[in-house]
Amino acid sequence: MLVLQAPLTPYSASIPSGPPPSAPNRTAQPLPSNPNPALGSALFALDLVPANVAPSIPIPANLLGISIELSVADEYFGSDPQTPSYQFLNYLANIRARAGVGPIVRIGGNTQDTAEYASNLDGVIRKVGGGLNAAGIPITPHLIYSDVIFQSLKTLVNLTDARIVWGVNMVNNTADFTLDMVEHLQKSVGDSLEHLLVGNEPDRYALTGNRPASYSIDTYLDEWGALTQSIINAAYADDVRQFSAPSVCCSWTTSQILDAGMRSRFSDRLKAISAIKYPQSLCQSDAVYGHAGYLNMTNIVNFAMYDVAAVSTAVEMGLPYVLAETNTASCVGVAGVSDTFTSALWAITASLELAYRNHSAVLLHNGGANVLYNVFHPPTRNTTTTAWRTAPIYYSLIVLAEALRSTSSDQSRVRNLGLNETMAAAYGVYEEETPVKLVLVNMASSNDQTQVMNVEFDLPANGNAAVSFKTLTAASVDEKANITWAGQTLSYYSDGTLIGTEDVQTLACPSQRCTLRVPAPSVVLVFLTQQAQSQASVSTSAFEPQGTNNRQLILDSNGSRGNRGGSTSKGSTRRNAGCARARARAGATLPLLAVLAPLFVSLSV
């Protein structure tokens, strides 16, 4: 139970705004050619239970989660655990309300391996160095971080049911601070710790100068084993299965490391097998492809098969396979692509393909202010606006949460239904062998009526005579702001809440045969059964900023500095106060907050 003092003075504040998104540059990033013949020229008949296509292993509803670079974690969480960034809480609460379980939040990345823990540090994170090199590539800073970040994680866990993956420094694999750090982390998040991800991209240690050029997989395994054993001896003697690895990206493969000894030597302590993979990298060269590369099922399937052998081994071991870090392109992302609707279409389709191929978690990475692929953007300290920005790829998190939520257990199964189109896809979601949901993706580049897909499928003979469906859509794939999910939007500047009236549509299916139109570009989520349809409409509670003596001031994204409110965003005015105080809507699915007394807001956990 976390109890926070209520505001001293009521106030009203609108969502701050800022400069509009930049217009598409279709010279630099041209729209891909639409399918020819047009998608609308054929009727796509789907078999929802194909005989020769086995479904995935059971997949959790929080498959798609978030990864945050350690060096900027305080910019997302806030610098004071008692006044967390309410916008960030809202973004996570949207996922929790739809998945029925808290989202996975990983804290780590390159900077976990340059980070030292100092419990008595004044502040949250202190950085030395960093920035960008002449080519615009991020330079990894050295970090020192304090116990405050663990207190922030505790607040996050309490309020959103988040599941935490924490990155452990392996470059400094004999440091005294590691054991102290694990102890404080354990006290803060307890059973909400999914696993400790030990080491980040160890296959690049020699390249970055952190190990000699002769650094080998055998040496890595010895170091990993010694470090994890020291953590076990200090904190986990009674439950050694706490770790994930190898989290390689480039020079080695996960299957190489498993076969070289990780499986035989450390299966007792592995809680997950982890990897890092992006479709392409901008770290050494320009992007290989733009929109057309992401809106292509051949590329998506190839991406999802990056290490089939390792995934198969994880399934044999009974361990989840976690893609611990991914996004559209490593090293900042692709301008005009990573920050557009293309990223949402890609993330939804790629995540479903990864689920079909037995991944249990896919975590979208987020970095600093200059990173184009971020899921959402907190304001930077050197700007006048206090507004957060919602990136198009964020919508993939809430769509997947709804698609994968089971009506009878905590997991579903996924099938690729083999649409055999370059710019379209269809996935079935199952409870055992019963189809309960259907995800249809139309990746045609613009709102062209000739590209509207007509999809036909049959419902069970004793089932419903109608289905419900929701649509994620935009006018074109290079749209950055005007995106709607079932009639609601987060707009561009946002406090993390969906604006507008939810629009769940119904389609009659005479004789149990349904014919559904899928606009271009869009994703349509179809609820096939009565139980699934009962989950189609989602209500949430929103977190609000804490008020102050000066009603002109609201707390900004970093949780400690008051800033003047800005202009209204899409007519959305937020009222009342209280740190993370809820505006409970009817039928809210996340009853985290309750007002217990005039002077206090009590947050139940």
Automatic annotation (TrEMBL):
Residues 1-34, 538-580 are annotated as: Disordered. Gene3D superfamilies: Glycosidases (3.20.20.80). Residues 557-580 have a biased composition (Low complexity). Coiled coil: none annotated. InterPro entries: GH, GH79_Enzymes, GlcAase_C. It comes from the Eukaryota. Pfam families: Glyco_hydro_79C. Residues 426-525 form the Beta-glucuronidase C-terminal domain. PANTHER family: BETA-GLUCURONIDASE, BETA-GLUCURONIDASE C-TERMINAL DOMAIN-CONTAINING PROTEIN. This is Beta-glucuronidase C-terminal domain-containing protein.
